[in-house]
Design brief:
6-stranded mixed sheet; binds adenosine-5'-triphosphate; 4-stranded antiparallel sheet; single chain; 235 residues
Length: 235
């Protein structure tokens, strides 16, 4: 497994946001984490990334225990988070935002990789010297993903990347994720757009109040009537 979290818990004061869950992502896999607001999905990703310290459990990335390591160590180990709300640097240019993604790299290939990102996202190339604040929501999401790619990840974690995007951008986003996966990048996707996430993913986990209440192959979850009734709604 590329990423393995075992018995992971995240506690804020008296709130047990994540309660002893086991999650794994294999090399080149697409795994989705579903669940209602407040189920603990963001807390899970923040713990995996190293932004919050788990109160219990272990996180192993590519065979190395990173539980007590920094976020930077995890990025260097190949795991990057595209956070909820994108969190790009709005007062910086598009190009500067992309350079931020390379802050841990010491090799000479950064400009080549950024050129490849501009090729993938022509809208970003056209706006490379503009402030990121002028980008549309969809373009900001592309920038956030572009910035993650500059770190040359083996695994990208995304926290509700489709939130607030128009249906056209959502389509583009999901097709981008498919392309990235074809290029060999594993994906851990937290989504509210349950049906699209399950159509893209190989496996899924369903969170409820910090617990994994259901897991399995995406196809199986899509066929689960109770799940469909609870989370898929009309979407
Ligand atoms: P959402 O889809 O709204 O982001 P989520 O599934 O990602 O929801 P979390 O944001 O991880 O859920 O929240 C899980 C629980 O932890 C919630 O009860 C939330 O109120 C609580 N929580 C999250 N962050 C904090 C924090 N920094 N301090 C205290 N409680 C928090």
């Amino acid at each position: 497994m590329l990423l393995e979290a075992k018995d992971l818990s995240v506690v804020y004061g008296r709130t047990r946001a994540v309660d002893g869950v086991d999650i794994s992502v294999g090399e080149g896999e697409i795994v989705t984490v579903l669940g209602a607001n407040g189920a603990g999905k963001t807390s899970l990703l923040r713990a995996l990334q190293g932004a919050v310290k788990p109160s219990r459990g272990r996180i192993v990335l590519a065979g190395r225990d990173v539980t007590n390591g920094s976020s930077a160590a995890r990025v260097a180990g190949g795991m990057v988070l595209v956070p909820e709300g994108r969190q790009i640097f709005v007062s910086m240019s598009v190009h500067e935002n992309l350079l931020m993604g390379a802050y841990l790299r010491r090799d000479g290939g950064i400009e080549t990789d950024i050129a490849a990102i501009y090729e993938r996202f022509p809208n970003l190339a056209r706006r490379r010297d503009m402030k990121a604040s002028v980008l549309s929501g969809g373009e900001q999401q592309m920038l956030a993903i572009g910035r993650a790619l500059v770190a040359r990840p083996r695994l990208i974690m995304l926290d509700e990347p489709s939130l607030g995007l128009s249906p056209l951008f959502v389509e583009q986003l999901f097709s981008l994720l498919k392309d990235l996966n074809r290029d060999g990048i594993a994906i851990l996707l937290v989504e509210q757009n349950t049906s699209m996430a399950l159509e893209l993913a190989t496996r899924g986990y369903v969170f409820e109040l910090g617990d994994v209440v259901l897991q399995g192959p995406a196809e199986e979850l899509l066929g689960n009537q109770a799940l469909v009734a609870a989370y898929l709604g009309g979407g």
